[in-house]
Protein: Pyruvate, phosphate dikinase
Organism: Petrimonas mucosa
Amino acid sequence: MEKKRVYTFGNGMAEGRADMKNLLGGKGANLAEMNLIGVPVPPGFTITTEVCTEYNLLGRDYVVEVLKPEVEKAMENIEKLMGAKFGDRENPCLVSVRSGARVSMPGMMDTVLNLGLNDDAVEGIARKSGNERFAWDSYRRFIQMYGDVVLGMKPQSKEDIDPFEEIMEEVKHAKGVELDTDLDVADLKELVKRFKMAVKERTGKDFPESAWDQLWGAVCAVFDSWMNERAILYRKMNNFPEEWGTAVNVQAMVYGNMGVTSATGVAFTRDAATGEDIFNGEYLINAQGEDVVAGVRTPQQITLEGSRRWAKLQGISEEERAAKYPSLEESMPECAQELIKTQQKLEDYFKDMQDLEFTIQDGKLWLLQTRSGKRTGAAMIKIAIDMLHQGYIDEKTVLKRCDPEKLDELLHPVFDKKILAASKPITNGLPASPGAATGQVVFHADEAEAWAKDGKKVILCRIETSPEDLRGMATAQGILTARGGMTSHAAVVARGMGKCCVSAANGVVINYKERKMTINGKVFNEGDWISLNGTTGNVYEGNIPTQDAELGPDFLELMKIADKYTRMSVRTNADTPHDAQVARNFGATGIGLCRTEHMFFEEDKIIPMREMILAKDEEGRRKALEKLLPLQKKDFKGIFAAMDGFPVTVRLLDPPLHEFVPHDEKGQMEMAKVMNISYNDIHERVESLMEANPMLGLRGCRLGNLYPEITEMQTRAIIEAALELKKEGITAIPEIMVPLTGIVYEFKAQKEIIEKTIQQVFSEHSDSIEYKIGTMIEIPRAALTAHKIAKEADFFSFGTNDLTQMTFGYSRDDVAKFLPLYIDKGILKQDPFAVLDQNGVGQLVNMAVQSGRAVKPILKCGICGEHGGEPSSVKFCHHVGLNYVSCSPFRVPIARLAAAQAAIE
Ligand code: ADP
Ligand code: MG
Ligand code: MG
């Protein structure tokens, strides 16, 4: 059978279904499903994503040829249902051409509305509708959209002008009006004439008159847009493969611009920012398509309650609100009721919060899209937990619905409450995306990127944002816009990114050229500090410090559900009691990596540490180590106490010694004085520590083998700390970890020293505690000989940072020089230091676990590299059978959720 490339829908029938998103795209699949469940949707058809792939491989001519018969037949179906004919002069059937990939890619692909119009058809539409203004308004919109999207007239950079916008402004200006709705038929005719001239001027060709030419132009433009720069960037940011392709939806037009009984809008079945179970949305009367989102006029709220809330935030009185910005419930009560019923039906059916688009044509409601709505991390959790309680979904679905990465935004600091209470907002806007942000003002996305690269915190301030600003938005701390509603580009994108955003802030005037803005008269230049509260919409002058977030009951419930299904435990990497406590609050059940070297950089320890390193002989080293012992013991006591009852893996000294000694003259002089030897001696000793390749030099257990007294001191500090705490009723469970083992004998030698010291301390104290001795597996040779090492070790901890470095042969410190290029060129799909390389490094991990457990089934295995907090890597760890992952404190909840997901997948 010939491959089916086109799927039709309309009038309660559809060839597709909601579960066919891979083939029909998200939009097409849901349009089909809405038809099937009796929601009013204009008829249309979907060209499959497979055709997009054919288009990229075989080209335009082939695809048009092969599609023609199916598309013509599908168009007849639309014509029949609409009682109009595509390309007809008297009774033309107009369509929209819409893109739709598997998952929504906001702003990536552009839609063309009112396709099929030309100089004759516009008259036909005018006669048939009896509404000349509507006909010409549709025509001018069509030329504008078609010109931008299909004929490539959309401005590419901020210097470029949009010829259509310019003409629009001129015509409005000449007439002395501000809004597009103030233009009359004659103005619209004038616009059409000048738009077409602009097309001719720019492209050298007349605007296409034939409806079919228009259609194929638009269909191919959708396919082309799959490969445009923005789409490619978005795919890269989200790791979506190019092979997915986009579908094309062709759909009969319904008109929200037919006058005061028509409207268009967008709505959410629940609050996308907070997750509250409140239907909400925005609409505009006598408008079309994306007018609501584009901010051409101030959008109005659908519900009365929402409208009142909005007015309050905007400082608008009830009288003014009711007169100028009535809710849909007030302006079109019947349609509003219909919409409320429909949104409930959609949510009940799809069992998730829906983001919908609707149009009201002359009092009749039509749905144009429904999809699972983008939401903040907080809303994600609240909606999932609420829907569990409301009986929509079960616990496993709750876990699947929550994206571990999105927990991140909840865990991050909010404004310091005291300082916030003492600060007065300089203005207020819409709380478009919650959270707190503070930073320096910049006005252009590329500047935001550049400043952020220099390590600066920036707030991107724009009149409104567009998809071109994506990169800049991603690097900014927060986003402030002067215009746009809750569903503006800035708001939707910021929520998706989990980034704080205040939109439509009152009294904000931005001057891009002079790089300044005034907020209610006060001037802010580029580089000045402001702070945003995306939860309230408040904007503050200056830099307001932040504090840790509070975790609500929904979060705790989610974590409880996660723990119920998970097999792995989650530990943390922590070197201080404070970090250990933070991680414990986030649910860490132990420390997987406590580095001891950071402790030595503290002021009281760096001098004896240097004495130890610079000492001439063992005797000198032992003297210095004696000074370090009580200090180190104190550090361990703090950490053990914070982790009372949970295991703490302490890694013995790991980095090359030269990192600890002073390299400047002043520092070396100081050490000479402390140690009472000559400056030259010190200088020589420091020089002698220099290595050509320190990462592969005298470090890790090579240190402990060369200077056993260091291992002795550290072991003694660990065990004495644990024994002393035991007397206070605190349970320390130390796991002593030898770093950088490559040869089993390296480990054996260290283990002997450790054991001997432990027994000695035990007998001195006439007491003992539970302990373990194990090793990092971070050198490929250790992984390859794991069966030998496992005989000696109680546990393995995979140090995947070093293991990645040594398996790839990439210096962690120099990788930035070529990694971005590798990723750009597709040589590497991801940064292997961020996302575990499952095919290479992961195989070493897998092998070592298997062969280690073959000789010692109870061998405890964990991971302590950066990868321990990255969801896909955590899932891999589950599959290879690790007992735990260990990650930085703030990633602990993310790892807990990812581990649970791995267990139920
Ligand atoms: P996006 O993916 O950017 O949301 P859409 O294809 O959904 O783009 O369309 C853009 C706008 O045009 C939306 O507001 C949508 O509701 C509207 N629209 C699309 N097709 C039609 C149609 N056939 N009739 C009326 N409005 C339409
Ligand atoms: Mg769009
Ligand atoms: Mg849409």
The mean pLDDT is 93. The first strand starts at residue 6 and ends at 10. The chain has four domains: 1-118+211-253, 263-375, 413-547, 566-656+691-904.
